Amino acid sequence: MAMFLLMVLSIQALVLSTHGQEAYDNLSEDFKKGVNLALQKLSTHSGVQHHFLFFRSITKSDINHGFDVRYIYHHFLLKPTHCPRGTTDSTACHFRNDRPPIDCAVCYKTFGGNIEAEPKPYVHCIHKPSLTEDMKVLRKEQCNIIGYGSGAPTLLATRGD
Length: 161
Hints:
Layout lengths: L1 H24 L3 H15 L6 E17 L2 E16 L17 E10 L2 E2 L6 E6 L5 H16 L13
Antiparallel strand pairs: 1-2, 2-3, 3-4, 3-5
């Protein structure tokens, strides 16, 4: 009986660890770039000790402004793993359930599939329990500035999936 329980728990851990990579793989390239931008910023923060993986999207918005210009807004969660910060091969990294996820919002302009330096991409990530309503409002304002600066419709006025 103990062996069966151990086998079930091992299979469950494997399924949960591959879910993050599968969720990331299902994103379009434009949204993956934003997740990578957030992960890059997070990994340079001195207080972060664990390796994080994409967990799931909360809200996505993609405005095609024409002439190969897109405005991207992506609100998503990153979840810590048992791997240390700086891990390059995350295939063996399993999600931790004893730490809160990190709530991220990114918005940026792409041209030809590449993130543009101007307007500067906005990345805001914080542990989910610390996210306040004021921070949510600030995120929306900052992302709308990116779209308004170029005469584009607001990023948050469109419906994603």
